[in-house]
Amino acid sequence: MASALARRQAFRLATQIRTFSSTPARNAAEVKRLGVIGAGQMGLGIALVAAQKAGVPVTLVDNSQASLDKGLAFADKLLAKDVSKNRITQEQADHVRSNLTSTTLIDQLAEVDFVIEAVPEIPKLKFDIFAKLAEICPQHVILATNTSSISITRIAAATTKDPKDTSTSSRVVSTHFMNPVPIQKGVEIISGLQTSAETLDTAITFCKAMGKIPSVSADSPGFLANRILMPYINEAVICLETGVGDRDSIDSIMKNGTNVPMGPLQLADFIGLDTCLAIMRVLHQETGDSKYRPSVLLAKMVNAGWLGKKSGKGFYDY
Ligand SMILES: NC(=O)c1ccc[n+]([C@@H]2O[C@H](COP(=O)([O-])OP(=O)(O)OC[C@H]3O[C@@H](n4cnc5c(N)ncnc54)[C@H](O)[C@@H]3O)[C@@H](O)[C@H]2O)c1
Hints:
The chain is α/β, with parallel strands linked by helices and 318 residues long. The chain folds into two domains: 2-217, 3-Layer(aba) Sandwich (Rossmann fold), CATH 3.40.50; 226-311, N-(1-d-carboxylethyl)-l-norvaline Dehydrogenase, domain 2, CATH 1.10.1040. The protein has twelve helices and eight strands. Strands 3-2-1-4-5-6-7-8 form an eight-stranded mixed sheet, sandwiched between helices. Helix 6 (152-157) links the parallel strand 5 (142-145) and strand 6 (172-177). The longest helix is centred in the first third of the chain and has 20 residues, at 65-84. Residues 8-25 have low confidence and may be disordered. The protein binds nicotinamide-adenine-dinucleotide.
């Protein structure tokens, strides 16, 4: 009871701090250009939906030219499918495609109004990128992360060497899109302790402009979506590891018995086993609760490079 009370008080405190913060931020109507870092499955999806639904030009940054090429080829394929199904015209598809610019140079994000980071779920990688964004982006730019589990407060703290100076950290927020971005409507919006109310409002409004349904969660390990989803997936892998059921039985009973579109092992393959493992590690380390111990089999598969659909092999072959 005491810890529940403490959590409620901490949440209330965070909300109050946000309310009193006054750092100016742009509203979504003033987001004239979006920047996305990471052209993998999430970054590409975010860039495409922003270009298509919010109608903004997008600068897509990745440190791998191969990832950019693969991502844009996938965007072409998705747009061609929309045209073939008469969901959009060829002219509309061409216009959306012309809104996507790619580069390996992060410095080009000096020209955008809103950045969404979607690089792998590695804390130091994200901290370094946010420190760099703080250097290159002008004062009005909103800096959002698509992290699945890393504390927004810690990511925001990486933008300054002086924690008292919240001029940049107050503009950090999470827009946690769901996979696949063009299909899933929900977006989890999470404020760090430093995030201003204006930043939160801008993030919510911009996600709505992208056609999404935002919901707000507290900055707590795994937030809401993965706090609930990942232990479910992890438990399925433990059931496989310990022989409670084979792959097909596990996926079949959950798919056909709980009316979800796919079983947990197939879903893990679609998310990426490295991402699932990284999230379980954050839940385990940050709560210290053994109920979040990552499955040994999950870690072994990641060590083998079997990351699921994106690597061609996971619980299934692709
Ligand atoms: N996969 C999911 O289902 C899912 C869902 C919600 C959130 N997320 C989160 O979204 C983020 C991205 O996940 P993903 O599945 O798209 O990963 P991914 O592995 O598909 O893509 C990551 C991309 O980042 C690029 N990258 C790596 N280091 C970089 C750097 N220093 N600068 C620029 N680009 C760099 C890689 O080349 C790659 O293209 C993670 O934080 C993940 O936890 C993933």
